[in-house]
Write a structure and sequence with these properties.
heterodimer; A: 4-stranded parallel β-sheet; 6 helices; 11% strand; B: alpha+beta; Beta Polymerase, domain 2; Cytochrome-c3 Hydrogenase, chain B; 15 strands; 16% strand
Amino acid sequence: MRQPDGSSTFLTTRVETMLRWVRKNSLWPLPFGTACCAIEFMSVVSSHYDLARFGAEVVRFSPRQADLMIVAGTITDKMAPALKRIYDQMAEPKYVISMGACACTGGFYRAYHVVQGIDEFIPVDVYVPGCPPTPEALMHGVLKLQEMIQNGETHYDRLKNRNDDAAATAG
Amino acid sequence: MTASRTETTMLPQPQVDLLPKEGVVAVEHGVDGHTVLTVEREHLLDVLKSLKETPGLDCNLLADICGVDYPERDARFDVVYHLGSLEHGHRFRVKVPVTEDDATVPSAYGLWKAADWFEREAYDMFGIRFDGHPNLKRILTHEAFHGHALRKDYDPSQRWLLTEENLMTPKWSTGEQKNDDHLDTQVLNLGPSHPATHGTLRTVARLDGEYITEAECEIGYLHRCFEKMSETHGWEQVIPYTDRLNYCSSMINGVGYALTVENLLGVEVPPRAQVVRVILSEFSRIMDHAVCLGANLVDLGALTNFWYFFQIREEIYGLLESCAGGRLTVSYARIGGLAHDVPLDFEEHVRSLLARIPKFIDDVDKLVTTNKIFRDRTEDVGTISGEEALAWGWTGPCLRASGIPYDVRKAYPYSGYEQYDFDVPVASTGDTYARYLVRMEEMRQSLRIIEQAIDNLPPGPVITDDHHVALPPKEKVYTEMESLIWHFKLIFDGIKVPAGEAYGFTEGANGELGYYIVSDGTGHPYRIKVRPPCFAIYQAFPHMLEGSLVPDAIAILGSLNIIAGELDR
């Protein structure tokens, strides 16, 4: 970068680190909102709490355009195939936040029609507890995910490392 | 002025000589003020017909149909109908016992269209068949489900997995079909995950060009088994579950439930608790209407209003949080009163909200009410006549937008609503625009009620001193032997509600929110059936779509305020 006095400065980093830094600050969430938690999610993106401050306000309802799925609400057995299909449609890298007790564990619905935690069928990066979690809790979850992305600790990174290792051994 | 409904609820009573005789095994007077008829199955349709059509009875509202399972009886199931007359005010409960081997009753769909989904639900949950029903299949559970979940011998945690191959597709939607000009029609699937369906509603529609020719709705994507869960919990433990029915206005649900159980118990609620319940319920109504209108306007492309309305919600959340500790799911009502008293600055807080909220409503009013784009999108869209709306079992703001001024707070006052001076807004056109106008005005009327209530907030306790129902104060538990014993008994045994049944109904944000509760005298509810207002409203939706445009479908859906938690339970 050219400075006013004619000298130039530069910064060295690894491509991977740079990419992670970029990714973590421009998360595009897909709200898979089904129940009460979805109302609290609306609070988080509304003016009072304003998730835009953390670069994650561009809510997309198309899985093709999103890289963060926020599962907000109870997932029932009837809904599970739809959730799975939408998760599969998201392009990599993709991350999942499970918002609220129901999405994490089924919550207090230990019942005949409720999935006892979405990690039964999709991988989850951050679990946000609460019934429903406060907006602050969800924001903490997003910040936590950003930290994990920067440190390469997400499910996507683990899977990628494993695949790279396997390729190296085979090669 | 009519008196408030109290423990021996006095509803208007029908003229006894008009009641149908043939096939009626017993006529009783319920603790909830209903006239209870036990009817032989063979004469069911005749009895229902005469209740509907006899002048002087005129039961034009079919509020609810449900099943109740008594495995030890010969006739294992009761099919229970709740009927009411808006004109005369009297209410009926009609019970039909049927055996397990021959669990079939004639369908009431020919008399009230409202029977459509209620009968499907009874079939899904109990396996009771309804002869002559046009489309009897599962409604809340999925295609791969086995058994009937609300039967007493069904294990509450027994799940059945659904795979993608088994996803529901209506029979009519498969295969090609041509229109009159021999052009192909197209099938459009909307939802369950679609921004305009708010997460959990699904509509399959056949399109001829831009017009919808046929549609079917699939629900149950948020069926979280409220009714089964409440059977496995104590009476007090049900309150957090009720919060999650209509989670946009959770306080109203808790109050409705508490009122019904109090009716069965015969417990008086202290005046202070009643007033606080009214204040918070009305604030909840404002919140509910705010999110309904805000979301409806977003779907029509008017995002700004959503922020204005959500600011109202945030401010009210602050009040609820200061009272109950929770923002959205408050669990603040208790059987016999409230969980604890309101904070010291409650009155001041309420008054500051009363001063601030009208501004947000006025802002939206200025932006939207006379806005040409909005009016073009909503006027004459999704029109339904009052008569038809009632036939579908509609209540609440949607019914009032079609010209029928039925409001439970006026017709059957509870919690002291008869003391407050407020109007019931009614519109005549019955279209999407009318529903918007009614909700806007209801928010203002709710503010009026709160204003009067906060001026007359009485001092005193907020929960009954009947220690069969409410825990004694903590300091007494530590210092008095008797209070310690009451505390111990209540914690270990739970509340014992006397055996019996009651249907309690209040004005929810969407309409008549009913709880039909059966108690067998133990510490658990035997059966709780919720009559969710938007269940009845949503069943008319596919029929309203026929002949309308796809974008109109979105406008109509938003204006009906379908809350999945309440719809699917």
